[in-house]
Records
---
Amino acid sequence: MKGINFDFNNMFSFNVGGENGVDEKELSALSYSVNEAHNHLSRVLSDKSSRVKIGLEWTRLPFQDAKTVRDIQKLGDEIAGKYENVVSLGIGGSYLGLKAAQDALCPPYYNDFAGVRKKRPRVYFEGNNLDPDTLSVLLKNLNPKKTFVIVISKSGETTETKTAFITVREWLKKGAGKHYGRQIFAITDPESGSLRSEVDAEQRQDALSFRNSSLMKGVGGRFSELNMGLLHLAVTGVKIGDVLKGAADMHKACTRQELSSNPAYMYAALHTILYRMKGKDIAIIMPFCETLKSTADWYIQMLAESLGKKYARKVKKLPDGSEQWANDEGRAVNVGRTPISARGTNDLHSIQQNNIEGMNNKAVTFIRVGKFRSEIKVPAGNGILSGKKFSGLIGLAQEATEWALVRESRPNCTIIVPEISAYYWGGLIYFFEMATAFEGELLDINAFDQPGVEGYKNYMYYKLGKPGLNKAVAEEIRKNPLVKNPKFII
Ligand code: PA5
């Protein structure tokens, strides 16, 4: 994509040595797998039925039609014109993309200063934890009459979001009067889940109550910022069309067959070699930019839930020619790099010590920003800092960090973004999505499910006495309680 560049010099042995870096021969040796992965992914991407079954329909999100975009933008403006506050409820993929977008695309301190918000509502995120303190304080301090609620849950069943929604709905009901439901918008599955049933029931009573939209089929939570996150973008005044255009242009770049001109393939291939052959199983993602920290947090979920897998993938061909993927329970692989988010320059006084001198098992990804929205110059009379621009200093700090890592033979790469605009942010997140999908291909796992998340949920459901819990699951929990010997608690 024109504008966003991927610099991978420091991933190579000529910079960090053969033990810790990729040799060009090793990259060539991977070309057969890269071609196979490209051919397979392209085949699936060209078939709607496969895309939907596998969970790859997110690759169509950048190409949503202009009317859909206009309608959402209009609704966002309507909400922004009427309410002082928006509370957005959701967790995981129903939260992290929105938070990343808000921090990146709205000015810093957006919620704190009216002048910064430019007549847009404050946006608070809840339903992403079960910590009672945050929601209590929020509800005690917001005026329900001036607050709009957006609840997002694809399944409509997630405990964190559901619990928060029940609480917030009661609070609205008490404080906003009988038409409180007109202050709620739900984004959920078109057919299933208790949120969908509730929304449909409320709509039958009052068409203006519990307005809602349906999530696109075949788009998993963490890949759905360009679906479920659009209303939030519109509320905060971000131009949805620009975000989508950035993603669409990145789609073009990230579907090219040629490894040397496809940044997502290159990113995935180099990390696969470092992970498989050089023991780099920790992925540090470190934007040198405060407002991209939440984008790094979003990518943590993308990498961890997509690629941290127990089983290899089983590809099933269906009679209509489409594909379905499942987990091959006969092939346990336990793969996946462990992601950690950090930010420069803040974490140069923290995790960086370990990055430089701790175990050499990491690959660092920097994000470098060309032009910031504002600039500050250090006043004259302050020695070597006199007249220096903050943006120049942060850029120098990033370069210095690369240098320090290279000196200690630590592989790293840099994604260079010209500026943090809606267009480039759309491109940036789409790059990470495609890189993750391709890395999943190279690892031969299903990057679009997250079965490991079920364990804690089932345990909670069992303890809460949820009706209909799978009998075998309930039995497993009953037979295998946590062992807590007081001798080992001091
Ligand atoms: O990527 C995913 O699918 C998950 O992280 C989900 O987004 C998360 O579990 C929340 O699920 P839901 O939107 O169904 O409440």
Note: The radius of gyration is 24 Å.
---
Amino acid sequence: MNIIKHSLAVLGMIAAPAFAASQVSISIDAGKPGPVINKYVYGQFAEHLGTGVYEGMYVGPKSTIPNTRGWRNDVVGALKELHVPLVRWPGGCFADTYHWRDGIGPQDKRPRNVNGDSVDEFNAVGTHEFFDLIDMLGADAYVNGNVGTGTVQEMADWLEYMTADGGSPLSRLRAQNGHEKPFKVAYFGIGNELWGCGGNMKPEYYANLYRNYETFLRAPANSRPKMIASGGDTTWTDILSKELKGRTVGISVHQYTIAGATWEDKGKDLGFKEDQWISTLANTLKMDQIIKDHLAILDKHDPEKKIGLMVDEWGTWYDEKGAKSALSQQNSLRDALVAALNFHIFHAHAERVPMTTIAQMVNVLQAMILTDKEKMVLTPTYYTFQMYVPFQDAKSLPLAIKDNTSYTLGTTTIPGVSASAARAKDGKVYLALVNTDPSKAVDIAVDVAGIKVKGAAGKVLTSAAMDAHNTFQNPQAIKPAPFSARAAGGELSIKVPAKAVMVLALEE
Ligand code: AHR
């Protein structure tokens, strides 16, 4: 039938647009699982910045907002649904001026100071409170130390305070402060953005400093965190991967997505036109090449693949004009697609990208949750993270897209469909799809080698407007809807709506 249609169209006997509805084909090989997608790829970043921690998550035990030991019950409850695997804290640039001793002991005796650029820091959230949050979320901790204005001794003391298992003066202090048992620190970051807010250093200088710090970061062998070196551009990765072999499990990279052409004009969070829809998605897709560039260097210096690339800050960053608090921005359907496209890129590099933390968890940049006093709203990015939970610790599956559509506006063209598949821990095969085109639905035929597919069911996130978003007045404006598809002869036919993120569990 299609052949006849095609021939008639070529002969000009039927309108060519009918042919534009041609199918995209996706082949998945369920019989050849690839690397595991580390659950830490779905990590989050919570920095003392704006209302990211205070107000957004921590309101104090005396607040009228329902809380558990100061942490908002509504926010913690919502975050639990995301199975947050890892939280990076306390910064960011904030970490570069943070002195951990300010944040221990009785809260009313803690100093009030200005930390970072602008936070009036009253230190109510310190080490113990952070680990309380971590426990409530069932997450692991990624603590970021202060190289910028700290000392080797201060950092070594902090690690001892957190991890020593009794007997040492600092572990006794921890016990006096209410936590007898050591805290478990999964990752420890030695500094942040040393090329900028962390001290404007050269990579060679930081590499030496790192070696110095790492030498004295002592902890019992079974509880020593994995150490992360703070990276920058590919020059940094080059130098750090040569100099820090055997001393780090990861080099970090920060990569933000803007909608506009420059950092001075990053574009608006809402009310943008289609040019900034496509530019945002095109910019975020650059993550793939950026990862490839860094991995090419790692492959050269670390062929044993002992060092991972940790994308520990990523997400959208729009113009700050009119923001309610520092770096707060609204979050729309466009951000949901940004998150999903990045997940697909991270999955494709699962072997070498074992951890990422989106910036940030609440109220800051590409947040999961926005708050206003006692109100809380879940963002489209939150829903994307929720839909992708099955991909945590799932085995990636080879996937090929044939006859992909492309989406063009002006001089920019990006792939129409992005897809990723994995066999999850529940035994099911999951397929995630993104249609980047804001106006056209796309028909996809899915063929899965190794299993007989009967159908698929899951969720789709889409809306009529490119900037569809939830507000405190209308918190349910955009949320995922159920979606299912049937298979015929083992082949699934899926129509993905325009501008949509979809995650389906295949029924065998
Ligand atoms: O996430 C906001 C800031 O962006 C972080 O503090 C810093 O590390 C980066 O420049």
Note: Residues 1-21 have pLDDT under 50 and may be disordered.
---
Amino acid sequence: MPDTGILIGAHRVAAGDGRTIEVEDPATGKIIAHVPAGGAHEVDAAVTAARKAFESRAWSRMRPLDRARIIETIARKIEENAAELALLESYDNGKAVHHALAVDVPAAVDIFRYMAGWASKIAGQVNPISGDGRQYHSYSVREPIGVVGQIVPWNYPLAMAAWKIATALAAGCTIVLKPSEVTPLTALRLAELALEAGLPEGVLNIVTGYGHEAGQALVEHPGIDKIAFTGSTRVGKQIVQTAARDLKRVTLELGGKSPSLIFADADLDKAAIGAALAIFFNSGQVCLAASRLYVERSVYDQVLEGVAKVAQSFKLGHGRDPDTMLGPLVSRAQQQRVLDYIDQGRAAGAEIVTGGGTGPTEGYFVEPTIFANPDPDAAIVREEIFGPVLVATPFDDPEEVIKTANNTRYGLAANIWTRDLSRAHLTARKLQAGTVWINTHGMNDPSAPFGGVKESGWGREVGEEGVLLYTETKTVTALLDD
Ligand code: NAP
Ligand code: MG
């Protein structure tokens, strides 16, 4: 277990009022740790530490290649502690430890390694200004935005924290991060590793606490220059309203209701496996989960049968069981939310192809569930469930299905299965989504900007675009008096 105190500078503190939050293993319901329930007081102390670190320029003005070396060292420390981090993530979130080892931990390693490179590559430009005919030298530089508040959810706790922290560090910012109250442990451990790697104290501060307390206090704090948030669209909208008071910069990675589109000419076996993994991986608790499946009518029954077979083959279980494919949902509340949607789907007359129950009795499990032919206006088709629930619908007209796929307030991701290259790329152009995958799903990479259109968010994370969103542009123009 990492030290579970709030991290301010290099010090661990309890909440001033002594309150704590129980951290639970969702496979058993057992309490595995307590973390402080930080609030406005702790957030203020953390912001003060981050501000001091920013103004000392110990980080932002460190030689770029030295910053790169420290960020790279964090990657190496994560790699060296992979087994421990995966186990911690499994206990905290419920996911299979071998999935955490194969997906979550490598994602964290990769982002630090990739962002280490950016620390020495953030350049500006020379502006070829016309001016008034006299000679000018004009250039623009990218400066770190300052002190950033980062708020992350519980579905990929380590990887989401790593995406945010590594990017902000590359840009030269200092950080106050609030993990989800449900899964605070790996962010706390990551911060320990960052300090061991030589990150100067105060550059990364972690405040555990509830969203409506610590999270809200961070968004309200006048000492924060930017909020980077990953979570629900509902909370994202609240953050925008609060941040409007002092026009903090805001980037948002929010919810989704992403479509899978399977055309009759696709490799149908691969498409069925792909569509099943696209919704059921991580028990559906994935922002980019493809929770709506549209299949060309001539192959609809065949594909649906294939997806259902894959769904039934997933073994539900404890995250430490090596045979487990799908762990429990993260909490009782999340399990109940998903079961309520399944009840609504049944009540709305959609047909259950497979699943619908809770599976193993102990722990917060939900079986991979497929609804066929739902009413297009039903809640299960329109709203993000954030659980292992897929809705499947046949289509006849390839143009019409693009309209149907786009008929949602979300626009995070989409996938297309076809062997027709022109159709694949033309459909990709027409889909309203931040990411479109062709004959695959979920391939994220530190080099590929990620984010959503419409109510799925503002801005992009990772890649060059992600780094630049942690900077402000300053233009400097000099008159050359000759
Ligand atoms: P959430 O309720 O919005 O919470 C996300 C984070 O915000 C948590 O750390 C939460 O803290 C905090 N929070 C809650 N209320 C807050 C407030 N008023 N002010 C500031 N912070 C607040 O979302 P969730 O249920 O944890 O996560 C699931 C959602 O995240 C889904 O909608 C999913 O699509 C989205 N998500 C998006 C992406 C993406 O990249 N687009 C990735 C993963 C997840 P507490 O947990 O402590 O309350
Ligand atoms: Mg937990």
Note: The two ends are 67 Å apart (CA to CA).
---
Amino acid sequence: MSYPQPFVDKPQRTDVLLVSPWLAPIVWEGTFNRDILNAQYRQKNFVVGVATFAVKKYVRFIEGFLGSANKFFLSGHRVNFYLFTDHPEKVPSINLAPEKRLFIIPVQNYSRWQDISMNRMDIISNHIHSHWRYEVDYLYSMDIDVQMFEHIGVEIIDTLVGTISSWQYTKPRDSNSYERHPESRAAIPHGEGDFYYAASFYGGSVSEVYKLTTACFKGVTEDRANGIEAKWHEESHLNKYLLYHKPTRLLSPEYYWDEELIRPRIIRVKRLSSVRKDLQELERLTLLLGGLRELLVPCSSLDSLVSFFFCREAKCVL
Ligand code: UD2
């Protein structure tokens, strides 16, 4: 295979951090050669699992997720998609590539979206124990309300992998969204914190993801017993876990870009991005929240209303 020679005195990029202080690579466009990685990975013949949830109205995101993942996620490699849904009958039929398989797993729904989101950790840990440890080598958990626009390949594979949040990648640690209340099991003391990791995309070897999901759900359960819910639910617990169990590889915000944000020059590609929730949803919420109109005062246009309703800060207020 022929490719440009690497030189130690010619870094591929000088505008971004390429290695964490604990020597984990941070994956950015322009820092790797996909052909080399593919050739190395093919010799191992690994199977990668992807766990994703589409409960209640989120079934509408299945088509966009699976359609784009079929094209862009680990293209040419073996992938098992595990789709948890309370509406198996609504899963659209999608022609997957021969090396990709879809498993539809019925799951109960919860009235609160926070519970749907938080219980993912428990469900993933149980399925690793009962099935996936025999079926896949690596496992990734992904939000369903996303679409892929560029290849996400074997550069994401490592023992323990976290994605740096697109909302908070330049913020000082004390203004990040960590849970800081010491009563919560997700609490991170002031003055501590590396990066803020998004719960929308994390993964690693099956055994490491088992440890992670089991530990995070234990934290969620203990908080519940004490009448506490961490600021960003299971994401807060994930951040605590990854602070004390350092990821062996970090994905830059290219791997989860939030559509609400303007993309700066350092984010050269948008590989995966959130899908904007739609206007009908906004109308229903507007009706429901009639009494909270004063909250909307800062929002001058319909577009900013949409952003406001679906941004994390609004969810927090509600
Ligand atoms: C953030 C996190 C998300 C989770 C959540 C918890 C990012 C980008 N996303 O997302 O991973 O930590 O906060 O506060 O950091 N779901 C359903 N049905 C529902 C609600 C949720 O299936 O009614 C599933 C679905 O797979 C969805 C995921 O839970 O993708 C996360 O929910 P979200 O995307 O609404 O949460 P969001 O955007 O606040």
Note: Confidence is low (pLDDT under 50) at residues 296-304, 313-318.
